[in-house]
């Protein structure tokens, strides 16, 4: 059985401040660092062959903390923009509550939770999936299919796009998917890449 562990980075400073983050490179909050340490503790029994992450600091730092806790600081790590968070365009840096006051709750909900509606200057979840899934198929699945145990540390929306693919969720189902920060999510896959089992650790 092939093992894939997904982790959404620990809480970032802008998660804490309720801001749209997207591709802005903000650090982890102190709580986010603690979440990463807790994730590492839950993965003590695992030994990974390779890790993948985005090019954003909050994901990279989460991965570094996890690898430090499990004693695999020399693990091969590939960083790629394909795993970056969804790009929120003109909303980046704005407080979510203030954005609702300005544009209305319905419009902001549509920007955040529609599958194919882009915020001004940004990406939809569909756009995010169109870079995440090909990257998975080109880079991550080949490593898994070789029998390697893989760790991916990324972001709420890039992981939603990946889980949509793994669990064959519909466009409607993926909109209900919320991935908590810092929680390791184990997927076990068969030789064809089908998910046999998945659970949070």
TrEMBL record:
Catalyzes the interconversion of 2-phosphoglycerate and 3-phosphoglycerate. Its EC number is 5.4.2.11. The gene is gpmA. It comes from Candidatus Nitronereus thalassa. Substrate binds at residues 8-15, 21-22, 58, 85-88, 96, 112-113, 156-157. GO terms for molecular function: phosphoglycerate mutase activity. It catalyses: (2R)-2-phosphoglycerate = (2R)-3-phosphoglycerate. It comes from the Bacteria. This is 2,3-bisphosphoglycerate-dependent phosphoglycerate mutase. Signal peptide: none annotated. Keywords: Gluconeogenesis, Glycolysis, Isomerase. Pathway: Carbohydrate degradation; glycolysis; pyruvate from D-glyceraldehyde 3-phosphate: step 3/5.
């Amino acid at each position: 059985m092939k093992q894939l562990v997904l982790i959404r980075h620990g809480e970032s400073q802008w998660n804490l401040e309720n801001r749209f983050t997207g591709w802005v490179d903000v650090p982890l909050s102190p709580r986010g660092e603690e979440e990463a340490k807790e994730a590492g503790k839950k993965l003590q029994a695992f030994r990974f062959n390779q890790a993948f992450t985005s090019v954003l600091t909050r994901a990279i730092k989460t991965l570094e903390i996890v690898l430090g806790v499990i004693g695999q600081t020399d693990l091969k790590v590939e960083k790629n923009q394909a795993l970056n968070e969804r790009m929120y365009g003109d909303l980046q840096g704005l407080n979510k509550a203030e954005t609702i006051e300005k544009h209305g709750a319905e419009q902001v909900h549509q920007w955040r939770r529609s599958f194919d509606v882009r915020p001004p200057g940004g990406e939809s979840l569909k756009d995010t999936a169109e870079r995440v899934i090909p990257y998975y198929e080109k880079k991550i699945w080949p490593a898994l299919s070789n029998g390697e145990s893989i760790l991916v540390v990324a972001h709420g929306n890039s992981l939603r796009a990946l889980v949509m693919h793994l669990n064959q969720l519909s466009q409607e189902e993926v909109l209900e998917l919320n991935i908590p920060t810092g929680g390791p999510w184990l997927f076990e896959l068969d030789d064809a890449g089908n998910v046999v089992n998945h659970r949070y650790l």
